[in-house]
Design a protein that fits this description.
With 149 residues, the protein is of the alpha/beta class. It has helices at 23-26, 31-45, 57-70, 86-95, 133-148; strands spanning 6-11, 48-53, 73-77, 99-103, 125-128. The chain has one domain (6-148): 3-Layer(aba) Sandwich (Rossmann fold), CATH 3.40.50.9100. It has a five-stranded parallel β-sheet with strand order 2-1-3-4-5, sandwiched between helices.
Length: 149
């Protein structure tokens, strides 16, 4: 029996306050709601998901590095670290796994400093502005990509 694909879902800073932080931008769903949605989609696809959220860059880097030996793909919303973290970018490159970058809001329609993502340069796919559905599509994309390997 084959082992199911394993996807690490990484959520960066302030995503722990989804549902109450700027719901007009990020929506009303909480992080727990988002995780439940992703779990349902992953289960339907026969994929395992593990979630990590931190407001601390080093914790995210550690989780991404561990993924190299423990996961088959990474779905990441680096949040504010998208625009500032070379360390997260380098950890993703080191992991040598398929990477799907997702953003709840369309970062290209927001403040100019949000238009540039260091992560996008190492991501295999990027989706911004589809809200929580973007996470589901990311899991589906990764499941397909992993299965094709």
């Amino acid at each position: 029996m084959t082992q199911p694909a394993r996807i690490l879902v990484v959520n960066g800073p302030n995503l722990n306050v989804l549902g109450t932080r700027n719901p007009e931008v990020y929506g009303a769903e909480t992080l727990a709601d988002l995780e439940a949605r992703v779990r349902r989609r992953a289960e339907a696809l026969g994929v395992e998901v593990e979630f990590v959220q931190s407001n601390h860059e080093g914790e995210l880097v550690d989780a991404i590095q561990r993924a190299r030996g423990e996961a088959d793909g990474i779905l990441i919303n680096p949040a504010a670290y998208s625009h500032t973290s070379v360390a997260i970018r380098d950890a993703l490159e080191y992991a040598e796994l398929p990477v799907f970058e997702v953003h709840l809001s369309n970062i290209h329609r927001r403040e100019e400093f949000r238009h540039r993502s260091f992560v996008s340069g190492v991501a295999d796919a990027v989706l911004a502005g589809a809200g929580p559905l973007g996470y589901e599509l990311g899991v589906e994309w990764l499941a397909e990509r992993i299965a094709a390997r």
